[in-house]
Amino acid sequence: MSNQEFARRRKHLMQSMGEGAIAILTAAPTLYRNRDSEYHYRPDSDFYYLTGFPEPEAVMVLKPGRAHGEYILFCRERDPKSAIWVGPRAGQEGAVQEYGADDSFPIDDMDDILPGLLEGVDRVFYTMGNHSDFDKRVIDWVNNLRKQSRAGVHTPGEFIAMDHLLHDMRLFKSSHELKAMRTAATISAKAHCRAMQVCKPGMYEYQVEAELLHSFMQAGARFPAYSSIVGGGANACVLHYVDNKDKLKSGDLLLIDAGAEYDYYAADISRTFPVNGRYSPAQRELYQIVLDAQLAAIEQVQPGKHWNDPHEAAVRVITEGLVRVGILKGKVETLIEKEKYKTFYMHRTGHWLGMDVHDVGDYKVDDEWRLLEAGMVMTVEPGLYIPAGSKGVDEKWWDIGIRIEDDVLVTRNGHEILTAGVPKAIDEIESLMAAAHG
Ligand code: GLY
Ligand code: MN
Ligand code: MN
To answer: Which of 169, 193, 224 is at the close of a domain?
Structure first.
């Protein structure tokens, strides 16, 4: 993402905030995997969206109309000693020259400088509740200023949640963002194809995961967007199964839910295919129900439809299918009304997708489902999960877990499936696997 893109976002936010306002946003802390060993640092998406600044221990301040510059970045000073261990920091020089800050100060000087920036401001835009230590500091700065109000210091009267403005911006993807999301989607689709091609009975789930990660990294996506789910047989019925430790058996299905992150944007794909390359009759029947539900839901992704339309379409097709095969009994309307499908389809049909895999953005506006508009990206991911022992369900359906998930962009005329590069029709998947195994 270019510096112009980050600058455009800050400008947009400042225009919405108006004069007399300030926005304060802190970088996420570093997390430790175990003593002394850090997780690879991933900036908070809100912070990175506005700054493009990849280091921890940084605070962004936006003050529209400030004569000495509207964008102030507090960050760590350059330090030759730490550079030997972990590489150079941007420092105040880099913050200005490389990252486009108008002004930059050492993070250690923030308690001295930030209260001054709050003087004369009416409204503070802030994301309260994400970092409690930092919340306290912000409140202390404001309270200290208030103590000086008798001396004529004008102090902020209002705290406003920044989330609304910022998350609405993040919900609508720019052409630059869509480019990154298309790349993430293409890389992820290729990785799923590779998983289908290499999978065979006797492999371990983690070995298939290794193939996915190998594909991601070879294609330039250093990290997955979330922990990959690679679950064979019964494990496919555990929605967030990430142990990925069991041996894959012929006759079982394998559910993979995995997506790459590229330039801070996520893909999120699920496919479910037979470990031995051929769906059994029972698997085929349930798989086709989920696929039909997914296609019906995707049809609903277009401007003017509301957020819940795809879910309602999926629920209808799944309920009809479950009645047809005898897993549910009764009238479709009544079963939908009583949510009987929830025993086997217990999650929602999708979520917004962007820098966060479960991306930000309101799903309802004024208590009504939000209308879909061009530039929004969402997943469409119905499933069916029938663990062994499911009461009143014929054993032939047991241990079948299926999810089919694509990433779909709302366009001006309809939609575009970003993840169309990996097959999902039964015959296409079987052909791909057969061709790979000779
Ligand atoms: N991979 C998480 C999800 O599908 O929502
Ligand atoms: Mn998803
Ligand atoms: Mn997923």
So the answer is: 169
